[in-house]
Amino acid sequence: MKLSELSNTNLRIVSAVVMLAIVGVAILLEGYGIPFLHIKPFHAIRVLAVIVMLLGMYEMVQSILKTETNKKVLYYSFLALLFVDTLAVYHVATKPWILLLLLSIIVGADVGAWGFGKLFGGDKMWERLSEHKTWSGQIGGIVCGTFCGVMYGLLGADVFRPELLWIGMGVSLLSQYGDLTASYIKRNLGIKDFGNTIPGHGGILDRFDGWIYVLPLIWFIIQ
Predict the structure, then answer these.
(1) How far apart are CA 214 and CA 201, in angstroms?
(2) 121-135, 146-160, 189-203 — which one is most confidently predicted on average?
(3) Helices marked H in the chain
(4) How many structural domains does the chain have?
(5) Is 171 exposed, middle or buried (0-12, 13-18, 19+ CB in 10 A)?
């Protein structure tokens, strides 16, 4: 089966499994004394992350130019935030363990919000921003994201780190508000996705919108 033939649901599951598998492999290798996160090729992730962000920004600009709207100031303000994200990810990627921790929490929060929302439904959060986001989904996202953060600490250091509870909850919540912001922008533009980079699964920003508030905050903290 081709990637383009997979449903959005299956693609979401596949992408989540792949990203969490990367985190798991890194933890296992480091646990067995193989310095996976310290080899030079891995640090090329900084350049790759910047390229991905720039491609996402390019897709968004193309989406804006194709629409007739009187709110372009709003969209270019969002674009400015993405530029800050590009700088942030370049600096945060110098600490691979932090980057993988964020990855595990954000993926967990995304899957948890989607799964709990589908399972329990209930009241919408802000239907004007996104018609699919529910309060049950937000709670599920925080629970699952925090769980992934705590497990990351347990597997990586063999010890429970209480601070990961607060980090997990904070990052999970921020990631969901990043998703809401992107949904609001797309809704005002009258589009479903920012692009079609991943067949059947939207553009680059559709996969990384959960990072838009997390990255600047983490960059500020590690400085």
Answers:
(1) 22
(2) 146-160
(3) 8-31, 45-65, 72-92, 96-120, 135-157, 163-189, 204-208, 214-222
(4) 1
(5) buried
Q: Please write down the long-range contacts of 41-49, taking CB distance under 8 Å and 24 or more positions apart.
A: 42/96, 43/93, 43/94, 43/96, 45/93, 45/96, 45/99, 46/89, 46/90, 46/93, 46/94, 49/89, 49/90, 49/93
Q: What is the pLDDT of residues 166-176, one digit of tens each?
A: 999 999 999 98
pLDDT digits (tens, 9 = 90+) for 67-91: 766 667 777 888 888 889 988 988 8
Greater model confidence, 103 or 191: 103
Task: Find the radius of gyration of the CA atoms of the chain.
Answer: 17
Q: Quick one: DSSP state of residue 169?
A: H
- At 97, list the tokens: 């363990």
| CB neighbourhood size of 75 (10 A) | 18
Structural domain boundaries, residue 14: 3-222
Q: Which residue's structure tokens are 């990203």?
A: 19
106 and 171 Cβ atoms separated by less than 8 Å: yes
Distance of alpha carbon 27 from alpha carbon 37, whole angstroms: 9
- CA dist 222 and 189 (Å) reads 35
Reported as a single tens digit per residue, the pLDDT across 191-202 is 777 777 665 556
Strand, helix or coil for residue 195: coil
Distance between CA atoms of residues 120 and 43, nearest Å:
41
3-state secondary structure of 134: strand
